[in-house]
Amino acid sequence: MANQPLLALLRWVPQERLDIRLHGASLVLQRNPRGVFALSRRGLIQIPLTVRRWWSFETGDPVLLVAVPERAAMVIHSLVVLDKALPDPRQVVVASRPFEAEGAVPVAGSARVHPDGAGNGALEGGS
Asked: Residues 20, 29: contact at Cβ < 8 Å?
């Protein structure tokens, strides 16, 4: 696993020593000079096979990487964690509202996106 911007944010370097801990269906990697795990020589995150098997994680499975720079740590969330955290998509579809034309009055509980000149958008009125 590699994410160079994230590793740079954490100031981790190739062969950085790490601890790997479990928290529910998430992994916590934290810098520890006496850690038994380490980044590879190329700076790749190597999750040991025993951890991957316990975690039901296969090479190439999508995950969410979250940096915690003040703790020199990274949390790796599996799709199981994301699935539990996100709303049921069926409920999202049922509760959705038609996109409103510019200047229309928003429906209570809905949000409107206002694009700026650069194509970015600001969310207004979300609940």
From this structure: yes
Residues 6+ apart with CB under 8 A from 27: 20, 21, 47, 51, 55, 75, 76
Distance from C-alpha of 111 to C-alpha of 124, rounded to nearest angstrom: 5
**Would you list the DSSP string of the chain?**
---HHHHHHHT--TT-EEEEEEETTEEEEEE-TT-SEE--TT------HHHHHHHT--TT---EEEEEGGGTEEEEE-HHHHHHHSPPHHHHHHH--PPPPTTPPPPTT--EEEE-TTS-EEEES--
Per residue in 47-62, pLDDT tens?
Answer: 888 888 888 777 788 8
d(CA 33, CA 42): 18
pLDDT digits (tens, 9 = 90+) for 1-59: 668 889 999 999 999 999 999 888 889 999 999 999 999 999 888 888 888 888 877 77
Tokens of 113: 């996106």
